[in-house]
Amino acid sequence: MSYLIDGKTGKWELVMGLEVHAQIKSNSKLFSKASTFWGGKPNSQVELVDSGMPGALPVINEYCVDQAIKTGLSLNAKINKKSIFDRKNYFYPDLPQGYQISQFEHPIVGNGFLVIETEDGQKRIGITRIHLEQDAGKSIHDQDNQNSFIDLNRSGCALMEIVSEPDLNSPQEAAQYVKKLRAILRCIGSCDGNMERGNLRADVNVSVRKPGQKLGTRCEIKNVNSIKFIQQAIEYESRRQVELIENGQNISQETRLFDPNNGETRTMRGKEESHDYRYFPDPDLPPLVVNDDRIEKIKNELPELPDEKKKRFKEQYKLKDYDAEILVEDQFVSSFFEELAEKRDSKIVVSWVTVELFSYLKKKDAQLQDSKIKSKKIGDLLDLIINGSISNRQAKEIFEEYIETDLEASDFIKKKGVKQVSDKSEIEALIKSVLQKNVEMVNDYKKGKDKLFGFFVGQVMKESKGKANPQLVNQVLKDLLSK
Amino acid sequence: MTDFKNLDISTAKECLLKKEFSSLELTEFFIDRIKKSNLNCFITNTFENAIEMAKESDKKISRNREIRDLEGIPIGMKDLFCTKGVRTTAGSKILENFVPFYESTVSNNLISDGAVILGKTNMDEFAMGSANTTSFFGNVINPLKSSEENTKDLVPGGSSGGSASSVAANLCMAATGSDTGGSIRQPASFCGLVGLKPTYGRCSRFGMIAFASSLDQAGPITKTVKDAALMLQSMSSYDEKDSTSSRKPIPQYLDFLNFDIRGKKIGLPTEYKVEGLNSDIVKVWDDTINLFKKNGAEIVNISLPHTSFALPTYYIIAPAEASANLARYDGVKYGFRENSDDLEDMYELTRAKGFGDEVKRRLMIGTYVLSAGYYDAYYLKALKVRQLISDDFKSAFEKCDVILTPTTPNVAFPIGEKQNDPIEMYLNDVLTVPASLAGLPAISVTAGKNSNNLPIGMQVIGRPFDEISILAAGKLIEEYRSFL
Q1: Any CB–CB contact under 8 A between B88 and chain A?
Q2: Is the CB of residue B244 less than 8 Å away from at least one CB of chain A?
C-alpha cells in the first residue's frame, strides 16, 4: 500500500483534495476589455468594472467561456449548458466591487477526471467541478510607511477554479496531479501554468484518518504557489494533524497559510471567523448558456492531449512509461523531442533529452522553453555521435560548454580537439602495439580467459587517450584475436 | 422674456424649427426659473454647459443641417445617471464629490439627440425612498398645493422627486427618472405628470448608478403622453455594455397616435382594490373605466392572485441586490472616506457617515436576507414568489391587452408625514411594485383630482415591450380627463 504516516498509535492515511486556481489565458479580462498583459504599470489595465465604478456593468468575455469549455473537455468532464454567475460578497481593498463574480451552485463544468502515474500504477483523480470567476487586485504594503497601495491590473482577470475530489493520498500524488493538470492546461492553451507569476495556485485540503475509518476533519491551506511547497505543506500539515489527534486533541476545521521560510503551516482564520459570503445570482448577468454546436466545435479543435500523446510516444518511439510521461508533461518539451527524433534513433534522443539536457536545465534552474536552446543545437551534436565523429562519452564531457557556445557543433569539437578515431588502419595499429606488449595475456585469452577482452579494450582506449571509436575497437580487436 | 410655461416638447420643437424662438431663449428661460425656484429640485446645475449646448442646437437649426430629434430641448437629468465631467451623487454624501469620467448610455443618447441638460435633479439617496426625503441634499418640495387653507408643503414623491417637481414647476421641459419599484410613476402621479417605466431591458443601465439591478429601469417624466414617447424614443437602445439590455427592435413610439383603443381589452385586477385605497382615487378609477368603455374598449375582470405578496417580495429582493451593489462605496477608491489607521474602522466609519438612515436600513435588510441560514427562507422564497407574480401577469394578458389600476393608494402628502414608520412609507409602492417585479412597461397618467385639487394618477400596465399600447391608453386618459 502507498503512502502512510507513522504515528505513535500506528499508521495514518492521508486524504486530500485540491482547489486549483488557474488564470485563463486570454488577452482581455473575464468581464471587461482591459488587457491581462503581465507586468504592466500598476493600474494601467483597468476598465470601469475592474475598479468598481458606479454604474459599471460586467459583460462576459466569450473567449474565456470557450477556454473553460476546452478545459472541461480535456478533463473528460461534463459541460453544463446552463450555468449561473453569482456574487460572492466580502470587503477587501483589492476587491473593488465589494463582491467577486463567481459561480456557486451552477458551475460551467461538472464531473470529470484525470489520470496520474503512481508507484502502484495509474490512478484516476476525480474532478468535482470547474467554475469561472474574477481574480482580485493586488495590495502592496511595502512601498510606504503609512499607506498601502492597490494595483488593479489583475482585478477582473479570468480564473478557473478546478476542484478535485478527495482522491489524493500522498504528497507525491498531489504533485503528480498538479503536474498533470498543468500539462493539460498548457497543452490546450487555456492557462500558462506559470506558478511563479501566480497564474496557477492551489488551495490544499488536508485530513488524516486511520486506514478504513471515516474521514477526519480537514484544514485548508490557502494559496500555495509551487509544487515543491505543495508537497512540503502537505507533509507538515498531515504530521501536525496526526500529532494533535494522538495527543488527544481535535482538529478544528480552519483555513491555514503555508510559510515557505520554515516549511510550516499556521492558522489564518478559524471556522468561527469564516466569511458568510452571501452568494446570490448576479442580476447584472443572464444565465450563461452554451449550445451543443459550440461544445462540439471546441471538442473537434482540441489538440492531442498529454495522455494520447504519451500513448503515441510509447508506440511510435518505443519509449518506456516513465520517459514518455516526462516528455509529455510539457508541450514544448514534447515538440522538441519529436523534432529530434524525427530523423534519429529515438533511444539516443530520449536519453540525451531526459538525462543530459534535463540535468543541465535543472542545474541552471531553467525551463527549456525559456532557455533559447534550439533542437538543432542538440541534433547537431547527436549527429556527430551517430556518425562516429565523437563518442557518447566525449559528447557528455563537452555538453555544457557546447550549449553555451555559439559555435557550430563540428567547429566546436574541432576547436576543442575532440575527435574520435574511426580510421580502421589507425585502430589496427593501436591494437597491434597493445597486443605485442601483452603476449602472455593474449595466450591466456586464447586458452579461454574471455574476461581479458575488456582489459585489451581498456588498454587500447588508454593508448588512444580516449579518442578511439569504441565500437570499432571492439570489432577490430575481436577479428585480430580470433586470428 | 416669452413665457414658455406649459409648452410641450413637440410644440417647442416646431417653434424652434420655425425659428419662433431659439433654444438659447428657451434654455435661459428655464435657467432663470431654476435660479428663482426654492423647491430644491437640482443638486448640481450645468447652466454653462446648457447654454453651450443650446447655442450648438441653434447653429444646427439655423443651418438647417443635422437637426436631431430633441434638438435644443432643455431637460433635467436625474442625478443617478453618470454624466461625464459633471458631479453625480445619487443623492448621497458618499458620492458628494464624485465626478464620473464616463457618460451613462441613457444620458448619452439624449445628448446625442440634441437635448440640453440643465442640471442633475435631486432624488432619494440611491433611489431609496418614496417622498424624496432621504436625499443628503435635502428634500424636494412639490410645486402643487392642496386647496385647503394653510397647508404644509407636499412631497413630490420619490425617488425621482427632483425630476417630477422640476417638470411640474416648469423648471425644464422633461426629465429622466429611474424606476425600481415605482420611482417614476409615483412622483409623476403626485405632481400631476406623465411617468413611464419601460419594459426591463429597454433602456440601458450602463452608467446608471445601481440600486436593484434586476428592477432598475430608466424612463421619462413629462407633461404629456406624446412627450413621454419622444423622450422614450431617445432613451431606448440596445447596449452591448449592459448584458440585460434587450435586442428587440425598438418601434417608432409616436405610432401610438394611430393606435385604436376600440375593441381592446382593459383588465381590472380585483386584487388592486387594496385596503386603504383613498375613496377619491376609487372614484377616478371608476370614471376612467367608464371612459374606456365609452370609447369602445372592453372591460374584463382579471385576477393577479399573488398581488398581496408583491410588496414583501420587493422589499427582500431590492435590498438584497442593493446590499451588494452598494458594497463598492467603501472609501477605498473614490467618494467619501472617513480616515482611520485600521482598515475595518475605515470601512465602518466611512459607511456609517456616508450613508443615510434609509439606505442603511435597506443594506441591513438585504444583508440579512442573504445570510447563511436565512437565504432560503427569504431571498430564495422571494425569487419564487417573483416568478409567481410574473406568471399572474402572463395569464392575465391572455385575457386582456392592458391593465388599468390607480398608480398610488393616496395623493401627495405633506412633508414630514409617514417618516416614522418605514412600512407606511413602503405602502406607497404597493400598486407599482408588481409590474416592476414582472419587468413590465407601465405608465402613470393624471386622470383626475381629489377634493383638494391634488392630482390622481392612473397606471396602465402593458405586455413586455408593448409600450405603444400603454401610451395609447394613457393618451385617451389625458385627452378626456378634463371631462371626467
Answers
A1: yes
A2: yes
Q: Cβ contacts (< 8 Å) between A99 and chain B: which residues?
A: 324, 327
Please, are residues A175 and A116 in contact by the beta-carbon 8 Å criterion?
A: no
- The whole-angstrom separation of Cα A197 and Cα A192 is 10
Asked if the domains B9-256 and B259-305+396-483 are classified in one and the same CATH topology, the answer is no
Count CB neighbours of B374 within 10 A. 15
In angstroms, what CA-CA distances link A478 with A216, A428, A429, B67, B211? 68, 11, 14, 104, 94
Q: Respond yes or no: is residue B226 known to be catalytic.
A: no
Domain assignments of chain B as residue spans, ordered by start: 9-256, 259-305+396-483, 312-376
* Strand pairing category for B455-462 and B442-449: antiparallel
Q: Which CATH class is domain B9-256?
A: alpha beta
Inter-chain contact B323–A89, Cβ cutoff 8 Å?
yes
Q: B248 touching A, CB under 8 A?
A: no
Catalytic residue flag (residue B469): no
**Nearest-CA distance A192 → chain B (Å):** 29
Pseudo-torsion of CA A362, A368, A372, A376, nearest 10°? Answer: 110
ipTM entry:
0.96
Least confident stretch, A352-356, B56-60, B85-89, B465-469: A352-356
B475: its cell numbers: 393618451
Contacts of A56 in chain B (CB under 8 A): 206
CA distance B401 to B111: 34
- What number is the average pLDDT over the span B87-106? 98
Question: Which of A280, A285, A288 is the best residue to mutate to test the B interface, defined by the most B CB atoms within 10 Å of its own CB?
Answer: A280
Q: Which DSSP string corresponds to A186-229? A: HHHTS----TTTTSEEEEEEEEEE-TTS-----EEEEEE-SHHH
Q: What is the pLDDT of residue B1?
A: 60
Catalytic residue among B13, B22, B78, B236: B78
The tens digit of pLDDT for each residue in A60-70 reads: 999 999 999 99
Distance separating alpha carbons of residues B381 and A298, to the nearest angstrom? 38
Q: Where are the alpha helices (DSSP H) in B99-254?
A: 105-112, 161-168, 185-190, 225-235
Q: What does the pLDDT read at residue B483?
A: 52
Distance (Å, rounded) from C-alpha B203 to C-alpha B208? 10
> CB of B345 within 8 Å of any CB in chain A?
no
- Distance of residue B103 Cα from the nearest chain A Cα, in angstroms: 10
**Touching check for B386 and chain A: CB below 8 Å?**
no
Please list, in sequence order, all residues whose beta carbon lies within 8 angstroms of the beta carbon of residue B394, skipping any fewer than 6 positions away. none
* A52 vs B95, B240, B328: nearest CB: B328
Nearest residue, CB atoms, B205 vs list A51, A57, A96: A57
Instruction: State which fold the B259-305+396-483 domain adopts.
Output: D-Maltodextrin-Binding Protein; domain 2 (3.40.190)
In angstroms, the CA A273 to CA A256 distance is 12
Q: What band does A127 get if pLDDT is binned at 50, 70 and 90?
A: very high
- How far apart CA B205 and CA A265 sit, in angstroms, is 46
Determine the distance in angstroms separating the CA of A273 from the nearest CA of chain B, rounded to an integer: 14
pLDDT of amino acid A92: 94
Q: Which residues of A touch B82 (CB under 8 A)?
A: 54-55
Question: What's the Cα-to-Cα distance from A472 to each of A402, A460, B105, rounded to whole Å?
Answer: 26, 11, 83
Write the pLDDT tens digit of every residue in B442-482: 999 999 999 999 999 999 999 999 999 999 999 999 999 86
CATH code linked to domain A424-482: 1.10.10.410
Whole-number pLDDT of residue B484:
47
Q: What are the distances in angstroms from CA B275 to CA A64, B223, B278?
A: 53, 30, 9
Within 8 A by CB and 6+ apart from A330, the residues are: A183, A186, A367, A368, A369
B66 burial class (0-12, 13-18, 19+ CB within 10 angstroms)?
exposed
Nearest to B328 among A60, A96, A283 (CB): A96
